[in-house]
Design a protein that fits this description.
The chain is α/β, with parallel strands linked by helices. It has 2 domains: 25-128, Oxidized Rhodanese, domain 1, CATH 3.40.250; 146-245, Oxidized Rhodanese, domain 1. It is 47% helix and 14% strand. The strands form 2 sheets. The protein has a 5-stranded parallel beta sheet with strand order 1-5-4-2-3. Strands 6-10-9-7-8 form a 5-stranded parallel beta sheet. The relative contact order is 0.12.
């Protein structure tokens, strides 16, 4: 019995090792702790840092020496901006979960970059560890009024003239959106903000409510009247899901 148990455990461990190895080979990138990156920089080993957020976010604050390539443009621009595929590439974004930079890491690996690294914990971990960031154009933060989903629905129903602006990517907007919204992705906002009407109040919608405060402050500094959806599209979806569940009850 003991022999069979040991054999079973050995098999499970071996399977786990093989799965991990297969996963590593498939993704083609590794995680890099902030402390290791800081030590590399201090020792003069300069990997190529790439911030995968929007131009506005990159200019507001980033790690010194970083390129800015928004995730929406990463696949088409990385080859031109980083032609040396043997140089270490360190990708990061503004999220602890590193969703955007993880996606970019996969793209880089598929394009043949040999040393792709993901900054573990993203920019939040870099800051928590006490390392500095730089600002090319720091955006003054403004107090931005927030609307909860029910209040937004009421506002839109009353047709008071506000323009609902969804700053998520085109792909996310096509998948699901609030009726009446227009799409101006945040990675394009620094180029296209003049397309927005100055004579109408704007209500910004992002994914989860984390990016709209900065985008709102950016637009307010340019003369716009701006509000934002509290909790972003996630809060809107939660509201509609609750309503559907309530309507199904007998």
């Amino acid at each position: 019995m003991g022999r069979f148990l040991k054999s079973g455990i050995s098999g499970i461990l071996l399977m786990g090792f093989l799965c991990a190895a297969a996963g590593a080979a498939e993704t083609g990138w590794q995680r890099l702790p902030p402390q290791t990156l800081a030590r590399m920089i201090a020792e003069g080993k300069r990997p190529l840092l790439v911030d995968t957020m929007s131009e506005i976010e990159c200019r507001d604050h980033s790690i010194a020496g970083s390129l800015c390539i928004p995730i929406e443009e990463f696949e088409e621009r990385i080859g031109e901006m980083a032609p040396d595929r043997d140089r270490m590439l360190v990708l990061y974004c503004e999220s602890e979960t590193s969703r955007r930079s993880r996606e970019a890491a996969g793209m880089a690996a598929r394009q043949g970059y040999q040393a792709v690294r993901l900054l573990e914990g993203g920019m939040p971990a870099w800051k928590i560890a006490g390392y500095q960031t730089v600002s090319v154009e720091r955006i003054p933060r403004r107090a931005v009024p927030s609307l909860k989903p029910l209040a937004l629905r009421k506002r839109m129903a009353e047709k008071q003239g506000a323009l609902l602006v969804d700053i998520r990517s085109e792909k996310e907007f096509r998948k699901e959106r609030i009726e009446g919204a227009v799409n101006l992705p945040m990675y394009q906002l620094h180029r296209r903000w003049r397309e927005l009407p100055l004579d109408r109040p704007l209500i910004l919608v992002d994914n989860r409510g984390f990016r709209s405060p900065l985008a709102s402050s950016y637009l307010i500094a340019r003369g716009y009247t701006v509000e934002r959806l509290f909790g972003g599209m996630a809060s809107w979806k939660a509201m509609t899901a609750k309503e559907k569940a309530r309507n199904k009850r007998p």
